[in-house]
Specification:
With about 240 residues, this protein is α+β, with helices and mostly antiparallel strands. The chain has two domains: about 1-140, no CATH class; about 150-230. About 45% of the residues lie in helices and about 25% in strands. It is built from nine helices and eight strands. The protein has helices at about 1-25, 115-120, 125, 140-145, 155-170, 175, 185-200, 205-220, 220-230, and strands at about 25-30, 35-40, 45-50, 60-75, 75-80, 90-95, 100-105, 135. It has an eight-stranded antiparallel sheet with strand order 1-2-3-4-5-6-7-8. α5 (about 155-170) packs parallel to α9 (about 220-230). The chain is globular.
Length: about 240
């Protein structure tokens, strides 16, 4: 009898943790890219990627990618693309970080196609080892970031701090970030802007304003070399 009771409690715990994960993951998430926000909508049966404006968060009216959720395994979804004519499966790894109270997506998400759900599930352990993550933000967090200082007010010291953070991050992740991923652009664009947000600035500006910032500091002898070290030069 005790054995059966233990199994029931274990199953109840598993179900509750699964439900808890669903509650954390489901909803609207955002991450900044060059000229807009990527808007990720996770529901009980689908994951949809859209794009929306920095200011109004209004979607542009089309879906970039749409996936049907086939199975949940821990914090990873096995999904199939709605556009694929033949059954193909992908992994989407949603990573809740309870220490920092932030949420991420593994850069390995959608990087590989699998012919069966079983093949996809066997690769979950590998995707969990990947340290490169793309931050997912709530609308409230986006609103808070928007209240940051205008990037045009950055001083030479501010920019040095920003550039140093970028270089440090790139150095730590060099062996991984030099590889090609479908989401490499998202990792680099989002990460660079969110580092700026952590320093108190509003990075939710169009790419040309970002380019103007880099051009300004490339003309400054104090910051020119650090920009070259970043691998960033004005066109």
């Amino acid at each position: 009898m005790k054995h059966y009771l233990f199994l029931i409690l274990l199953l109840a715990g598993f179900l509750s943790s699964t439900d808890l994960f669903a509650q954390i993951a489901e909803g609207n998430w955002y991450t900044p890219i060059r000229n807009k926000l990527l808007h990720i909508v996770i529901s009980t049966d689908s994951i949809v990627f859209r794009k929306c404006s920095f200011d109004s968060l209004r979607d542009y009216g089309y879906a970039d990618m749409s996936f049907k959720i086939e199975r949940k395994v821990k914090t990873t979804y096995i999904v199939s693309s709605i556009k694929d004519t033949l059954p193909v499966y992908y992994l989407f790894s949603f990573i809740p970080d309870h220490t920092s109270n932030k949420n991420y997506m593994s850069i390995e998400s959608f990087n590989n196609k699998f012919p069966t759900i079983t093949d996809a599930e066997k690769s979950i352990s590998e995707i969990e080892k990947q340290p490169l993550k793309i931050a997912f933000l709530t609308k409230k967090e986006i609103d808070t970031i928007r209240e940051g200082k205008n990037i045009s007010s950055m001083t030479t010291t501010d920019f040095k701090n920003y550039a140093t953070r970028i270089i440090q991050t790139d150095s730590v992740n060099a062996q991984y970030s030099n590889k090609k991923y479908k989401l490499s652009y998202l990792y680099s664009e989002s990460g660079a802007k969110l580092i700026l947000a952590e320093l108190g600035f509003n990075p939710l500006v169009k790419g040309d304003q970002f380019d103007a910032l880099f051009d300004k500091f490339y003309q400054d002898p104090e910051t020119q070399q650090i920009l070259i070290k970043m691998g960033t030069k004005p066109e």
